Amino acid sequence: MLILVVNAGSSSLKYQLIDMDGEKVLAKGNCDRIGIDGHISHKAADGRKLDMDCDFPTHTEAFEKLVEALTKSDAAVIKDMSEISAVGHRIVQGAEVFSETTLVTDEVIEKIDGLAELAPVHNHAHALALRACKKVFSADVPQAVVFDTAFHQTMPPEAFMFGIPYEDYEKYHVRKYGFHGTSHRFVSAALAKAMGRDAKDLKLVSCHLGNGSSITAVKGGKSIDTSMGFTPLDGVIMGTRSGCIDASAVTFLQKKLGLDADQMSEYLNKKSGFLGVSGISSDNREIYAAIYEGDKKAKLTADMLVYEIKKYIGSYAAIMDGLDAVLFTGGIGENSWEVREGVCENMDFYGIRIDKELNKSIKGELKKISTPDSKIEVWVVPTNEELLIARDTLALISK
Ligand code: ADP
After folding, report:
1. 121: pLDDT confidence band, cut at 50, 70 and 90?
2. pTM score, two decimals?
3. With a 6 A CB cut-off, is 229 part of the ligand 1 pocket?
């Protein structure tokens, strides 16, 4: 059975066609620059490629083009779109409305669009893509929506509330939602399996470290706290996002720099983080390249990330009353031995010890990197959000 997984933004539409018999990716690609001019880059699993400029006034034309790429191009992998059994969409914000993967109806699309105020960059674009997908695919092709926030809906109120007047939480839905839920759910389940344990018996800290990073406390298979907040800005320092910052520093800087609210948001989301502190790059590889050249601000940037992750591990061990394993995932977590080593160094109090040589050799593979005498296991677990979206979609349509 073939499932198309879609990750739509306001100007892009990334996709993967997955054969669920064997969970193999048949093709993947991106329709980019929607509403600007348009470009598709598409790659079949056997290496055949399609790369061309085309016109995408809206998401509808992008869907039409991806169907053409999958069925008729030189890099086609299927004969007809009727071979696609269902479509699974990644949605950023489900707020308190959606706590699990849901089948798409007109009402569901309206609700997703209605949450746009809580995710200005994403949810309206998702709604546009959902409507476009319904137009292009036949009505009997089921579509499912998988929410980044859903996994974190199990957080208790003491974890998700901010210390603001309660009526503003009720009126404006301002609270911690958490993101990367699909990834944290995938990797925490994969780790339980790799450890040969039942997820229900485990206390884990899941560190998803990429351009955006979040740390989650997973107890008994459920998220009980996470570092990202109302938006994906909160938590640890990220590529261009500040991470946690005293709100008074924000209003102070806004006045000093003469910025309006949108400009201040851009400052914190796009100009801060690794890029802002190092003045070099938002990319972890370039930060470490600069460290090896002796750059002090790059070193400070890397130290800040490591320090903040350590604090989350300690505090999450405290709220879970124990810790069985820490896992690293995402572009940095899977590939940067330096970040993993930095986080795990001097954690003897917690009983964390890693095999430094082994850690250095691990890139993007499922592997335990802690030593046999480490009380807490440490693992690298590659994430695969698209696969989880496809699995969820399959499970839902099979019901
Ligand atoms: P996103 O959050 O956009 O999905 P990724 O998970 O792909 O991002 O992570 C991107 C980050 O991963 C970048 O900071 C990049 O430098 C880092 N990264 C990717 N590959 C490596 C590598 N081989 N070594 C160190 N860092 C890496």
Report:
1. confident
2. 0.96
3. no
